[in-house]
Each structure stands twice: as structure tokens, then as C-alpha cells.
Amino acid sequence: MAPEREALYAPDMVMEPAIQSLAVALSRKRSIVVLTGAGVSAESGIPTFRDALTGYWAKFDPQELATPEAFERNPEEVSRWYDERRMRCRDARPNPAHRALAQWEALQTARGGRFTLITQNVDRLHQAAGNRTIVELHGSLWVWRCTRCSREVEERGPAFTEFPPRCIDCGGPRRPGVVWFGEFLAPTVIRDAHAALADCDLFVSIGTSAVVHPAASFLAEARANGAYTLEINLDATPASATVDQALFGKAGEILPRLVGAIEAAGA
Ligand code: OAD
């Protein structure tokens, strides 16, 4: 199979005809998997990780903040950093990219198709926008887990007052319910992701640098299963050269147009 590969940058005159013809093909897909990364939440004011000037990892060392060893060494600093991120997400609202993805799922399921959203984001903005079938690959910033008794509590309230926050049952130190570098993903999460990938005929990678595994391997897995592959990103990534079609620009600008065209194509 030698798919025709195209990469298109944002100017409307170039992008619009491509979106229209793409939408016709996408509206016929039976089972869709969308993989999202931090770029989808960027327009909600949440920093990405690897963008050169604004990304978290441009300012902080992930080994000092996003590993179990870092938490053991410095639970105060690590929990404080994650709580600041939790507060930032508390103030954030879904942007047009999140809303378009919720609209796409509703459209696809109303037509009897499948739609699975696999996200690396821990902010739950996809849930807030209305997506229903979501696989949270890297956990959630809202759930905090006791490292002693494993009790989990959903934390929607104001910033913590002690760092690390303590378990109300056993007094043990609590950590955010996210997956850190060097940790395993939950088996149920892996199972759900692979099940969706095995069945999909369209795979869309949006706003992710496509470098962190296992998410980085999902594109190849979907393609090996025969899926058409599409990427939407501000810039080229390692995935761009391998997808059937790449659309470069802001997710919050491209997705509403694409999903609107898909809706019109299927009407
Ligand atoms: P990255 O920061 O690595 O990549 C964000 C991607 O979004 C980049 O490719 C940007 O070009 C793109 N981007 C930025 N703004 C955009 C916009 N408005 N529209 C479309 N694309 C945009 O974030 P992730 O790929 O999500 O894991 O990172 C993957 C994992 O690495 C994260 O879940 C996190 C991180 O370390 C852990 O913390 C374990």
C-alpha cells in the first residue's frame, strides 16, 4: 500500500479545498481513534511540554518533577508543582478543538460508528467538552493517591495547604494520579487503547509531538491494521512523514472546520 502523502500549511486557500475533500472520505469511516496531546489544550492556556519557549520541559527538568524517584527525593517540590498545574487546569475551559472533538464523537456515534479518544492529557478538558469514550493514557491531575494505603480522592477544590498533601485515612503522603516517566500504564488503559487501535479504519494524531511511548507507537499500530492516518499539528513531528495526510496549523482552527465539513458531508 502506498498512500498518497500530503502536508498542508494553514493558508485558507490551500487548506479549505483539502479539508472539504478529506471530510467526504472521513465521513465514511466506521471506527475512529483520535490521539491527543498537550497541543490540544494549548489554546485553553495550558502550556505544552516540548514547545521551545513555553513548554514545561523548556523550563524544568522532567527527571526532577515527573519520576517516582523525584517524588521520593523531594515530595514537597513535586506535589507543589503538580498542585500549581491542577490550579491552572481548574481555571481552564475547553477550547474550539475540544468542542469539535466532542461534536465529532456525537456525529460518529449517531451514525452508528465507533469513536475512541485516547489522550495523553491529564486535564480532563475532553470530558468537560462532552467526549464520552475516553482512554486517559497518562492518568489524571485531579485524582490524588495515597502512597501508603492507595486511597484515591478526586480533588476539585482550592490549592492544597500542605505539601505533600496527606491522606485523611492513614496520614500517608499523597501523589498526583498521573503516570510518571519510568512507570507502567494501567493494564486496563493499555487494553482499551489496543482494542480501539485493532478495530479502527481512521487514526488521527492531534497536538502531540509523537515521541513518548507507548502513544508514539499507536500510529504505526493503526496503520498496520489498515487505518488511514491523519495528523493535525502546529509543526512537523516525527510522525508527519509517515501519515497519509498532515494538516499544519492550530487544532482550534482546523478541527472546527474539518468536523463541520464532515457533518455536512454526511448530511
Ligand atoms: P508535547 O509538548 O511534547 O507536544 C505538543 C505538540 O503540540 C507539539 O508537537 C506542538 O507543535 C503541538 N502544538 C502546540 N500548540 C498547538 C496547537 N494550538 N494546535 C496544534 N498543535 C499544537 O506534548 P505531548 O506530545 O502531549 O507525559 O507530550 C507527551 C507526554 O510527554 C505528556 O503526556 C507528558 C510529557 O512529558 C508525562 O508527563 C509522563
Please write out the topology:
Layout: E1 6-8, H1 12-26, E2 31-36, H2 39-42, H3 56-59, H4 62-65, H5 68-73, H6 75-91, H7 96-110, E3 114-119, H8 125-129, E4 134-136, E5 139-146, E6 152-154, E7 174-178, H9 187-199, E8 202-206, H10 215-224, E9 228-233, E10 245-248, H11 251-266
Parallel strand pairs: 1-10, 2-3, 2-8, 3-4, 8-9, 9-10
Antiparallel strand pairs: 5-6, 5-7
The chain binds 2'-O-acetyl adenosine-5-diphosphoribose.
The site of 2'-O-acetyl adenosine-5-diphosphoribose (OAD) has 28 residues, from helix 2 and helix 11.
Total beta strand runs: 10
Q: Quick one: biggest sheet?
A: 7 strands, parallel
Low-confidence sequence ranges? none
Look at the helices and sheets and give the structural class. Answer: alpha/beta
Percentage of β-strand residues: 15-25%
**Number of helices, where a helix is a run of at least 4 consecutive DSSP H or I residues:** 11
Widest sheet: strand order? 1-10-9-8-2-3-4
Average pLDDT for all residues: 94
What's the multimeric state?
A: single chain
Q: Percentage of helical residues?
A: 40-55%
Radius of gyration: 19 Å
Order of helices and strands: EHEHHHHHHEHEEEEHEHEEH
The bound ligands are: 2'-O-acetyl adenosine-5-diphosphoribose
Shape: elongated
**N-to-C span:** 31 Å
Describe this structure in words.
- The chain has 267 residues and is of the alpha/beta class.
- Helices cover 41% and strands 18% of the residues.
- It has 11 helices and 10 strands.
- It has helices spanning 12-26, 39-42, 56-59, 62-65, 68-73, 75-91, 96-110, 125-129, 187-199, 215-224, 251-266, and strands spanning 6-8, 31-36, 114-119, 134-136, 139-146, 152-154, 174-178, 202-206, 228-233, 245-248.
- The strands form 2 sheets. A 7-stranded parallel beta sheet has the order 1-10-9-8-2-3-4, with helices on both faces. The protein has a 3-stranded antiparallel beta sheet with strand order 6-5-7, with helices on one face.
- The chain starts with 5 loop residues before the first strand and ends with a helix.
- 40% of the residues are buried.
- The model has no long low-confidence stretch (mean pLDDT 94).
- Bound molecules: 2'-O-acetyl adenosine-5-diphosphoribose (OAD).
- 2'-O-acetyl adenosine-5-diphosphoribose binds next to helix 2 and helix 11.
